[in-house]
UniProtKB/TrEMBL annotation:
Family annotation (Gene3D superfamilies): PRC-barrel domain, RimM
Keyword vocabulary terms for this entry: Chaperone, Cytoplasm, Ribosome biogenesis, rRNA processing
RimM N-terminal domain: residues covered: 10-89
Residue span, Ribosome maturation factor RimM PRC barrel domain: 108-176
Domain of life: Bacteria
Keyword Chaperone: yes
Membrane-crossing segments per the record: none
Name assigned to this protein: Ribosome maturation factor RimM
Summary of subunit composition and partner proteins: Binds ribosomal protein uS19.
Domain notes: The PRC barrel domain binds ribosomal protein uS19.
InterPro entries (alphabetical): PRC_barrel-like_sf (IPR011033), PRC_RimM (IPR056792), RimM (IPR011961), RimM_N (IPR002676), RimM_N_sf (IPR036976), Transl_B-barrel_sf (IPR009000)
HAMAP family membership: Ribosome_mat_RimM (MF_00014)
Source species taxonomy: Bacteria, Pseudomonadati, Bacteroidota, Bacteroidia, Bacteroidales
Amino acid sequence: MITLDRLTPIGRLGKPHGINGEINAYLDVDIDIDSLKRIILMIDGIYVPFFIASMRQKRSDTFIMALDDINNEREAAELTNHPLYVLTSDNVIAEDDIDEDDRGLYASDLIGFTVIDDATRQTVGEITDINDSTENVLFVVATPSSATVYLPVADEFITEIDTDRRILRMNLPEGILDL
């Protein structure tokens, strides 16, 4: 049986990519892609290995992954937002990325954070996903009124990231919430 103490977190799965079971994978660490043969996901309270059928790079920290036995969009959608693990013994993490403190913060790390607009001091909503389907990467934010807003992932708008309280403060351009 696989236990958490044998695992290393490497990122999370995003939304399905297409209809054939491929899924976006957001990686928080540099991985030796050629040696990555399987990932581990928690399914119904146990850690389950999934073997990788194919994997290709989409962006610097995003990959499109096909897993054995995941054959359609519905099956892939069931894995959305699952944390991704590898067996520590698989040694797939690049040597220069082993120190977690030096790895930086990725947009995908902010999923689940609450966005606060600095100008109004009001809560905008919670980041539920990252949209990287266009040239400009966007936070997908669910507002308290159940609407969805898209905010640019751009350093010039981010004023503070409080990882302890899971709050992202932003200086938003006027009118962006009305789009």
